[in-house]
Design brief:
single chain, Rossmann fold, 26% helix, globular
Length: 338
């Protein structure tokens, strides 16, 4: 089968290639999925050129320990292991290969086939396409959980919510979920993407190059930062009393500040700030909630462009270079004879 592979760290155009690799065979509770679609995530790129650098401790100091790419998968169950009774052949399934629950920190969605633990999969609703399903497992769940604290507190109607990184992978989902909950939503993005963010339902849009939201007089009940570039102290000044700031990641120092400084300051204030440590990849309750929001029309997966598997490097590069509005999806087909 064909699969996207990398053997050294670097940007996608320099290190990723499409190669012939052995087709996996399901064992234990695994399901062999014939992949129909897979979406690009920031997490895929962070694995190619480790960001933050301490990721190398987990994925390989000098070279990657796992060579295939892609975590969001949607396709058809083609075979099952002896301990995988949850699915039958022909089931339309999707999931996140990076699943704590399944004991996986896997990759390999950008391929014609992938072996996935049944714990990391869910049936695709009949009304949902493979392409739309492929956008959900990683980004949509981060969006939902970024709008909910560990104690279950979430936004309420009338709250002022800011989404920093509103046009990327997670941001469009977070924007739409916040609007569905009745919030007044501000999206932060680059100037060229402001119309896209307005189309998501934003009440206000800021060009991050022209306006630093931490230095304006506006105050927010909830801030979700999809890729931190501001210090915790600066962001906390943009919160209303009782407000919440959640960062989903970034470079090493924003992560360290989110891990240590934000929670420490929160102990002496009614404002909460910190890293999304309660993240539960592909949590069943959250994916069910997202399916409901999509079925009800409150949320629509926003796909910028689809690429065939033989153009997977271009798909990764579009996201890496910041050119995507929403999700980029790779679709699989019989592009080589078997």
């Amino acid at each position: 089968m064909k699969a996207a592979v990398y053997e050294r760290y670097g940007p996608p155009r320099e290190v990723v290639s499409l190669r012939e690799v052995p087709r996996p065979e399901p064992t234990g509770d695994q399901v062999l999925v014939r992949v129909r679609a897979a979406s690009v995530n920031r997490a895929d790129l962070d694995g190619l050129a480790p960001r933050p650098q301490f990721l190398r401790l987990f994925i390989g100091l000098r070279t990657p320990g796992v060579r295939q790419v892609g975590i969001d998968v949607a396709g058809v169950a083609e075979a099952t292991g002896p301990e995988a009774p949850a699915f039958k052949l022909g089931d339309r399934v999707y999931g996140d290969l990076f699943s704590f629950k399944a004991g996986l920190f896997g990759t390999g969605a950008f391929a014609e086939y992938a072996c996935v633990s049944q714990k990391a999969l869910r049936r695709i609703p009949d009304t949902m396409s493979f392409e739309d399903a492929a956008t959900l497992p990683h980004s949509a769940i981060l969006a939902l959980q970024g709008l909910r604290r560990r104690d279950g507190r979430t936004i309420k109607a009338g709250d002022k919510v800011l989404i920093d990184g509103a046009s990327g992978n997670v941001g469009p989902f977070a924007m739409q979920v916040a609007k569905a909950l009745g919030a007044e939503v501000t999206g932060v993005c680059s100037a060229g993407k402001m119309d896209f963010v307005r189309a998501l339902g934003a009440d206000h849009v800021l060009d991050y190059r022209a306006t630093d939201y931490t230095k304006t007089k506006e105050r927010y009940d909830w801030i979700v930062d999809t890729d931190s570039h501001h210090g915790v102290l600066a962001v906390r000044r943009a919160l209303r009393p009782g407000g919440t700031y959640v960062t989903l990641g970034g470079n090493a120092w924003p992560i360290v500040r989110g891990l240590i400084i934000g929670p420490l300051l929160s102990r002496f204030s009614d404002k909460w700030s910190g890293l999304l440590l309660w993240w539960k990849p592909f949590n069943p309750d959250d994916i069910a909630r997202m399916e409901q929001l999509i079925a009800g029309g409150s949320v629509t997966p926003r796909i910028d462009r689809t690429y065939p598997l033989d153009e997977v490097v271009d798909a990764l590069a579009q996201v890496h270079e910041g050119r995507a509005n929403g999700k980029v999806v790779v679709t699989m087909g019989d592009i080589w004879p078997r």
